[in-house]
């Protein structure tokens, strides 16, 4: 064990910090759930790509830097420290990218990863259906082979970023007689294809952060299938593993929130009446640290050839509940101002906390609800009997 | 940057685990409850032979010259079996205190050699704990008085037994009078030695708490497979799965803080307060939640003397309050967080803290 950064890692941190200082936009971008904000964020993705900072862990041939996971953590720490914009293409870079590298053909990698890394194509995720949420194997939307094409019919829902994105990755039933996990295939579909209708769904903040997608005789070439026909479930589970595992929610995000919470607490200390706040602030700081330390531990293990399986479910529960806890604490400190929208004249600095509080409500739901994660932990990590 | 234990550290831990799992069973722990001393001299000598009492004794004094980081996994294994013997307090707390004084005080040097050889037992008191554990079997006692550290022989102290809810724990109030002869350190030196002892004691308790938490969950998962109601194992019910999963989450995220605290104590002990407090609070929470959820999952059986759960549960309740309770450690963290110069934030995880 050696918990010191190497001189190379220290130099890498400096390089990241300097680049971010020179390039992070001074004014915060608009929400990427508005059309203008989405385009601003797309531009930011291009800026990142031009500096080769889009996905530092990816190989150089795909626009990355071949960084290991410790270097990735350093990059993320600097990224959140600099308050750089959120990644509008997170579905693509964190989920589909690693999936393509594992299951994609050379042609698919060349076609899709390159443009994803260049910030040119933004991705949405299309898994849930009206009748298939936590029970994802209940998927009914179909993609039926017709010569060199698949013909897609059905509906996806809760597709994050689908309103302004360019592509969606989905799983469809390619064997119409199949049931449950069998007969599903993983498909890449352009959202401007004839027969695709995207209907925005406003989220808690009123902006269309996700959408329903209707497929009406949509034709896509066979080359848009990832992996073998019938392999969709296996690939989707691998993608879900990336989502719950290390990449999606790096600890830096929560450490910066914890830091802001401590600062908020310090500045309001004399007018806080709620006796539990002191304890909650300390707990928030500790838990954000715990998550960071545990991530470094996992990263070290993975660098030495270990792997991450059902343990990812422990992470997902921990960071999502931590995020809720921190934002609840901030709202308690802000007290009667907590409900104010940023444009309210009396809002002051409260706006960001409210946004964060709203978003924190979704953490225990997306990427597999925490109830499902607890089942996975109990059955696969602890060995309790399946229901 | 490498947050993993070495192969040697892991292999040694596995051999100690195998030994403890074989020798320290619920049956053997219960036998100790009925004996006068509550301690097993044969077992102690076996621990000595494995080099465990002398792990942190410098090589020049007959020990292995190892660090808190080398010992922390072993302390976790001691918790996993609810070891009644005071191995952790001896090897991880008393020994480093004596080692810090060995240069200037030949009594300490001599004690180190005898502890490593299994010829002497030393108990240690601290202001954080009102009572001294295992004072009854100690030949010597390290005792604090303000900023002073004293060393007294067993015939120089008066002991009053204070019964604990955990029948394995043997606690004593100690009556004693120190003088120039018994004083080992005072002033700034004494303060710093006692502060370091508190951190090592808290680290040892945290490691045992984590081991206890994991042991309780493991035995409870087994029980929920065996116990059937409504025609199926009770563990098939989601409500029980979620009780156990919550314990697993708490334990998982107490590990890295524990190992970071052990590392910091080994590498820069004067900056270890916050790492240690974090570890102690996190491990205490994991153990208390495991105790609460495991007794619930056992139903009425968990409330009996016969069920082995209480061996672990009671130790967890006790150790959570020993070497600084959660309130003490959270206050240390709080005080630090209130300092506008405290280094916190995403790029500060491994910076010097405090």
TrEMBL record, chain A:
Pfam families: Acyl-CoA_dh_1, Acyl-CoA_dh_M, Acyl-CoA_dh_N. Residues 124-218 form the Acyl-CoA oxidase/dehydrogenase middle domain. Residues 230-382 form the Acyl-CoA dehydrogenase/oxidase C-terminal domain. It comes from the Bacteria. Gene3D superfamilies: Acyl-CoA dehydrogenase/oxidase, N-terminal domain, Butyryl-CoA Dehydrogenase, subunit A, domain 2, Butyryl-CoA Dehydrogenase, subunit A, domain 3. Residues 6-120 form the Acyl-CoA dehydrogenase/oxidase N-terminal domain. Signal peptide: none annotated. Keywords: FAD, Flavoprotein, Oxidoreductase. InterPro entries: Acyl-CoA_Oxase/DH_mid-dom, Acyl-CoA_Oxase/DH_mid-dom_sf, AcylCo_DH-like_C, AcylCo_DH/oxidase_C, AcylCoA_DH/ox_N, AcylCoA_DH/ox_N_sf, AcylCoA_DH/oxidase_NM_dom_sf, Mycobact_Acyl-CoA_DH. Its cofactor is FAD. Belongs to the acyl-CoA dehydrogenase family. This is Acyl-CoA dehydrogenase. It comes from Microbulbifer taiwanensis. The lineage of its organism: Bacteria, Pseudomonadati, Pseudomonadota, Gammaproteobacteria, Cellvibrionales.
Automatic annotation (TrEMBL), chain B:
Residues 6-118 form the Acyl-CoA dehydrogenase/oxidase N-terminal domain. Keywords: FAD, Flavoprotein, Oxidoreductase. It is an enzyme of class 1 (oxidoreductase). Its cofactor is FAD. It comes from the Bacteria. Coiled coil: none annotated. The keyword Oxidoreductase applies. Belongs to the acyl-CoA dehydrogenase family. This is Acyl-CoA dehydrogenase family protein. It comes from Microbulbifer taiwanensis.
């Amino acid at each position: 064990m050696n918990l010191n950064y190497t001189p190379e890692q220290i130099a890498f941190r400096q390089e990241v910090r300097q680049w971010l200082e020179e390039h992070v936009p001074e004014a915060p971008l608009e929400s990427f759930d508005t059309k203008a904000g989405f385009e601003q964020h797309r531009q930011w993705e291009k800026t990142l790509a031009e500096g080769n900072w889009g996905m530092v862990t990816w190989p150089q041939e795909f626009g990355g830097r071949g960084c290991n996971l410790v270097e990735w953590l350093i990059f993320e720490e600097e990224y959140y420290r600099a308050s750089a914009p959120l990644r509008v293409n997170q579905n693509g870079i964190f989920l589909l990218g690693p999936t393509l590298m594992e299951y994609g053909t050379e042609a698919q990698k060349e076609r899709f990863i390159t443009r994803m890394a260049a910030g040119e194509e933004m991705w949405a995720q299309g898994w849930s259906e009206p009748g298939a949420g936590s029970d994802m194997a209940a998927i009914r939307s179909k993609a039926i082979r017709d010569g060199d094409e698949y013909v897609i019919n059905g509906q996806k829902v809760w597709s994050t970023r689908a309103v302004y994105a360019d592509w969606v990755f989905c799983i469809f039933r390619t064997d119409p007689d199949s049931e449950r996990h069998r007969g599903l295939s993983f498909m890449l579909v352009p959202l401007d294809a004839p027969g695709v209708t995207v209907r925005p769904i406003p989220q808690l903040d009123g902006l269309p952060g996700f959408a329903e997608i209707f497929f009406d005789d949509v034709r896509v070439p066979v080359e848009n299938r990832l992996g073998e026909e019938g392999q969709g479930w296996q690939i989707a589970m691998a993608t879900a593993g990336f989502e719950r595992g290390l990449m999606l929610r790096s600890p830096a995000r929560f450490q910066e929130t914890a830091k802001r919470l401590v600062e908020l607490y310090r500045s309001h200390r004399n007018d806080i009446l709620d006796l539990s706040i002191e304890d909650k602030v300390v707990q928030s700081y500790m838990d954000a640290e715990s998550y960071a330390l545990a991530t470094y531990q996992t990263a070290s293990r993975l660098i030495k050839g270990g792997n991450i399986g059902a343990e990812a479910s422990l992470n997902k529960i921990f960071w999502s509940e931590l995020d809720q806890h921190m934002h609840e604490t901030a709202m308690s400190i802000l007290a009667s101002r907590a409900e104010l929208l940023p444009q309210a004249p009396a809002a002051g600095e409260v706006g960001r906390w409210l946004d964060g509080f709203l978003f924190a409500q979704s953490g225990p739901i997306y990427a597999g609800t925490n109830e499902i994660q607890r089942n996975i932990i109990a059955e696969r990590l602890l060995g309790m009997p399946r229901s | 940057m490498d947050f993993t234990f070495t192969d040697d550290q892991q292999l040694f831990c596995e051999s100690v685990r195998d030994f403890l799992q074989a020798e320290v069973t619920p049956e053997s722990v219960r036998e100790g409850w009925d004996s006068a001393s509550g301690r097993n001299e044969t077992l102690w000598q076996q621990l000595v032979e494995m080099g465990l009492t002398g792990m942190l004794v410098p090589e020049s004094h007959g020990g292995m010259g190892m660090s808190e980081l080398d010992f922390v996994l072993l302390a976790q294994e001691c918790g996993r079996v609810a070891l009644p013997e005071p191995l952790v307090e001896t090897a991880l707390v008393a020994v480093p205190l004596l080692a810090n004084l060995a240069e200037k005080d030949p009594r300490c040097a001599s004690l180190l050699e005898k502890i490593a050889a299994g010829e002497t037992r030393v108990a240690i008191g601290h202001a954080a704990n009102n009572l001294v554990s295992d004072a009854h079997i100690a030949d010597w006692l390290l005792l604090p008085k303000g900023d002073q550290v004293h060393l007294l022989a067993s015939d120089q102290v008066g002991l009053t037994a204070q019964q604990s809810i955990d029948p394995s724990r043997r606690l004593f109030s100690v009556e004693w009078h120190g003088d120039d002869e018994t004083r080992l350190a005072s002033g700034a030196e004494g303060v710093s030695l006692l502060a370091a002892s508190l951190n090592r004691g808290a680290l040892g308790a945290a490691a045992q708490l984590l081991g206890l938490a994991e042991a309780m969950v493991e035995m409870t998962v087994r029980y929920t497979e065996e116990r059937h109601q409504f025609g199926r194992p009770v563990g098939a019910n989601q409500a029980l799965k979620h009780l156990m999963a919550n314990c697993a989450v708490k334990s998982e995220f107490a590990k890295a803080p524990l190992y970071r605290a052990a590392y910091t104590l080994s590498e820069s002990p004067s900056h270890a307060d916050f790492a240690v407090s974090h570890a102690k609070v996190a491990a205490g929470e994991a153990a208390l939640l495991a105790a609460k959820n495991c007794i619930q999952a056992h139903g009425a059986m968990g409330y009996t003397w016969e069920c082995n759960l209480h061996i672990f549960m009671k130790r967890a309740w006790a150790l959570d309050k020993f070497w600084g309770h959660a309130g003490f450690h959270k206050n240390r963290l709080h005080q630090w967080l209130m300092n506008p110069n405290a280094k916190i934030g995403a790029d500060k995880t491994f910076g010097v803290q405090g």
